[in-house]
Amino acid sequence: MKEHGRKLGAVSPCAACKLLRRRCASDCVFAPYFPADEPHKFASVHKVFGASNVNKMLQDVNVLVLQDLPEHQRCDAVSSMVYEANARVRDPVYGCVGAISSLQQQIDSLQTQLAVAQAEVMHMRMRQFTTPSSLPNPGTIDMVLDHHHHQPNMGQSLWSC
């Protein structure tokens, strides 16, 4: 059985208390979220936010516990704090916003590449129907254009205003 991430009867302090070099009480606010076997989690959070601020944030999370916040959501809140701290360590100015911006730029670039590829495919289809060796019947090109017009929109195309 575990209590606050520690085995009952064990005297091993949580990662936070170990880093802060203090005794880890049974009601330690850090213990449920920063187990002794994951010291890197608290180290980055402590470096970015400071122990006092993390303590205040965890107190707020514990207030939410009294309001019946499910356990997985409490852990998600702490995981979010750890993620932001790690992002701030990698990029002190932008943190996770820099990562989000980079991913958005990749999405924009891929959408542009997709639109260009779709245009090339359409151009190749049009050339196939307009070569002298295969004269299309009058409705074929309109059918191809109509088919392309009804394709699902995969993001902003090059032809939109």
Keywords:
6 helices, LOB domain-containing protein 4, disordered N terminus, 2 domains, single chain, LOB, 161 residues, coiled coil, mainly alpha, elongated, 2 strands
Q: Provide the domain count.
A: 2
Radius of gyration: 28 Å
Succession of helices and strands: EEHHHHHH
Q: What is the strand content?
A: under 5%
Largest sheet: 2 strands, antiparallel
Coiled coil: 100-127
Family: Belongs to the LOB domain-containing protein family.
Protein name: LOB domain-containing protein 4
Keywords: Coiled coil
Task: Characterise this structure.
InterPro entries: LOB. This is LOB domain-containing protein 4. Keywords: Coiled coil. Pfam families: LOB (PF03195). The chain is mainly alpha-helical and 161 residues long. The protein folds into 2 domains: 89 residues, no CATH class; 53 residues. The chain has 6 helices and 2 strands, in the order ββαααααα. A two-stranded antiparallel sheet has the order 1-2. α2 crosses α4. The longest helix is centred in the C-terminal third of the chain and has 35 residues.
